[in-house]
Design a protein that fits this description.
The complex is a heterodimer. By secondary structure, chain A is of the alpha/beta class. Chain A has helices at 2-17, 22-35, 62-67, 83-90, 114-125, 159-175, 193-210, 227-230, 253-260, 271-276, 289-300, and strands at 50-52, 59-61, 97-98, 103-105, 131-138, 141-148, 179-185, 217-225, 239-242, 282-283. The relative contact order of chain A is 0.14. Chain B folds into two domains: 4-21 and 28-50; 57-309, 2-enoyl-CoA Hydratase, Chain A, domain 1 (Alpha-Beta Complex). Chain B is built from 14 helices and nine strands. In chain B, α4 (68-75) packs across α13. The chains are: A alpha/beta, B alpha/beta. At the A-B interface, α1, β4, α6, α7 and α8 of A face α7, α8, α9, α10 and α14 of B. β4 of chain A pairs antiparallel with β9 (315-317) of chain B, so a sheet runs across the interface.
Chain lengths: 301, 322
């Protein structure tokens, strides 16, 4: 189930604009810029880099894209956002305190090259695993926060993601804090076999206690959120918010097309589709997300 | 249907039938027939003692393997079926209702995936792949079990939750998530037996239980071996390797503490002697239900929480990693 979701969205993502995906292109530029000498003005070559939006085809300066948290300034297309950037976007400056850092996945099944995949993902992202969690303040209000990072093996949920999400839920429960979880995931991490499946049960039992209390749980779904993550903690919230255009579902579109031979309608599984089908509460632009959360938490705490 | 690795067994069976026909009432070929019968038994033992994980997956999928219908026919003296999710429709891929078990006379809520017995019923039950309305019906049944203090008995046999347009439109993921949340808190014993296939979240929504049994040749996995192979090796033909890597057999699950008991199947698999396999499950259910009957509801919920909160403690702090 897991990677079914993971691959589908990835493929169709790259297919949207044609040519080299913007993310590949940007990461190539970054590699280049790291090795290139700094210019005399102290401005690295990275700041002079511009690229073409995969969606609208307009040129964008990378620094503009970064300043807008990976939202295209022309067409407002929302590119994936690394977890540390997401934390910067949502939280009061300097308020984030990471918890449970230094927790690493093992390779419980000795699965193919999973160990190497983990190593590569750690190097690429600077993260221990696909989730960053802790406490923070949003509009001056203390919140327990967990953010998934799609760059780390497709944001997939193995034992570490399950454990950290469960601990964040328990932290919110113990300290009486609102809980916010931001998802971006292909689903369960199949390299951990049945252990990854069981993380759905783990996060669910943790949440089942939290929701008996009176603190809110807000789930934010970003592109893409699929499989075991959608089918467990990501949808079990009091309020479910999604970013515009985010693809959200259980099984990825490519797998559905392969199994049912059915042509799927335009906009299938987008946030807008899910809202129209009654599955999510609101679609909120990334650059207004913090303010939106502040308003919501104001009603609930 | 003949599985490829069962071919030697089938050959012996055919030769025995042929010799019997030739011999007629005479005793002439008796020695030869008896020799072949011994060889048949030996072949069964040899083949079934050494099944690879992927061969077990094939046994778990065998069309003649006893399914939900065989179990409710043989194990209950009354099955009072309930239908519908009260929102959209009734999904015949999962069925359930009140039931009185023959073994021990327990009143329970019985739930299971129904793969069907012939082409028509298999298609009707969508080969055991439920839609959201199926999982929502299951949630209703969990809640009824909790409300009336009846243990829930769940027989798992699914290739996964259905992957289709309508399933997505009606919130497949939401329905599964709601089942997991309901399972986490219902104040009655939940007993699951994986009787065939236990694939993906569609299976987990029905087996995050207090007690999980698994028939010897059933499997439990996060993903079907074929799908796993097409992702990892870019070749669904390498499903046998994927099945090996996923560690999905009943014995693997017992060793890893994911399930509580492996229920032995008759020699040659449950499809070879369906009644015996069903009987084994019936006895196990009676044992477990009797054992859990007087457990305090709070203690049950606490134990269930601990069980699933702990699973997959394969995260380790830096420096402690093995």
């Amino acid at each position: 189930m897991a990677a079914r979701g993971a691959r589908g969205p990835l493929r169709s993502f790259a297919g949207r604009g044609g040519g080299v995906g913007i993310r590949n292109w940007l990461s190539k530029r970054r590699e280049y810029s790291r090795s290139a000498p700094e210019t005399e003005s102290g401005v690295g070559p990275i700041d002079s880099v511009f690229t073409k939006c995969e969606r609208c085809g307009q040129p964008i300066y990378e620094k503009d894209l970064r300043a807008r948290f990976n939202v295209c300034p022309h067409c407002e297309f929302h590119y994936p956002l690394p977890a540390p950037e997401r934390v910067r976007l949502l939280t009061d400056r300097g308020s984030f305190r990471e918890r449970d850092g230094g927790m690493f996945a093992e390779d419980p099944l000795g699965f193919d090259d999973y160990g190497q995949k983990l190593e590569r993902a750690r190097r690429k992202t600077g993260l221990d695993d696909a989730v960053l969690s802790g406490t923070c303040a949003i509009g001056g209000r203390r919140v327990a926060l967990a953010v998934l990072d799609f760059r780390f093996i497709g944001g997939s949920m193995g034992s570490v993601v399950g454990e950290k999400v469960a601990r964040t839920v328990e932290l919110a429960d113990a300290e009486g804090l609102p809980l916010v979880v931001v998802s971006a995931s292909g689903g369960a991490r199949m390299f951990e076999g049945v252990y990854s499946l069981m993380q759905m049960a783990k996060t669910s039992v943790a949440l089942s206690r939290f929701v008996e209390g009176s603190w809110p749980y807000v789930s934010i779904l970003t592109d893409p959120t699929f499989g075991g993550v959608t089918a467990s903690f990501a949808t079990a919230a009091d309020v479910v918010i999604a970013e515009p255009g985010a693809r959200i579902g259980f099984t990825g579109a490519r797998v559905i097309e392969q199994t049912t031979k059915e042509r799927l309608p335009e906009g299938f599984q987008t946030a807008e589709f899910q809202r129209n089908h009654g599955m999510i509460d609101r679609i909120v632009h990334r650059l207004t997300l913090r303010g939106d959360l502040e308003r919501l938490l104001g009603f609930l705490s | 249907m003949i599985l490829e690795f069962e071919r030697p067994i089938k050959d012996f069976e055919e030769r025995i039938v042929e010799l019997r026909r030739l011999a007629g009432p005479s005793q002439e070929l008796r020695g030869e027939i008896s020799r072949l019968e011994d060889a048949l038994e030996a072949a069964r033992k040899r083949i079934y003692a050494n099944l690879s994980p992927y061969q077990r997956v094939q046994v778990a999928r065998h069309p003649a393997r006893p399914n939900f219908r065989a179990y409710h026919d043989a194990l209950t003296d009354d099955f009072y079926e309930l239908s519908g999710d009260r929102l959209f429709g009734d999904d015949p891929a999962v069925r359930g209702g009140f039931a009185r078990l023959r073994h021990g006379g327990h009143n329970v809520v019985l739930i299971g995936h129904d793969k069907g017995t012939d082409v028509k019923s298999r298609v009707k039950g969508n080969f055991g792949m439920a839609h959201p309305e199926g999982y929502r019906k299951v949630k209703r049944l969990y809640e009824l079990a909790g409300r009336f203090g009846l243990p829930a008995v769940v027989l798992v046999d699914t290739p996964g939750a259905f992957a289709g347009r309508e399933a997505e439109e009606r919130g497949q993921a939401w329905a599964i998530s709601a089942d997991l949340m309901a399972l986490a808190t219902i104040p009655v014993p939940v007993i699951s037996v994986i009787i065939g296939e236990g694939c993906s979240g569609g299976a987990l929504a029905m087996c995050a239980a207090d007690y999980v049994g698994m028939l010897e040749n059933s499997y439990l996995s996060v993903i079907a071996p074929e799908a796993c192979a097409s992702i990892i090796f870019r070749d669904p033909g390498r499903a046998a390797e994927a099945a090996e890597a996923l560690k999905l057999t009943a014995r693997d699950m017992k060793e890893r503490g994911i399930v509580d008991e492996v229920l032995p199947e008759p020699l040659g698999g449950a499809h070879n002697e369906p009644e015996a396999a069903v009987e084994t499950v019936g006895e196990s259910l009676n044992r477990m239900l009797s054992g859990l009957a007087d457990t305090d509801p709070e203690a049950l919920r606490e134990a269930r929480y601990e069980r699933y909160r702990r699973i997959g403690a394969h995260a380790s702090e830096k420096g402690l990693a093995g």
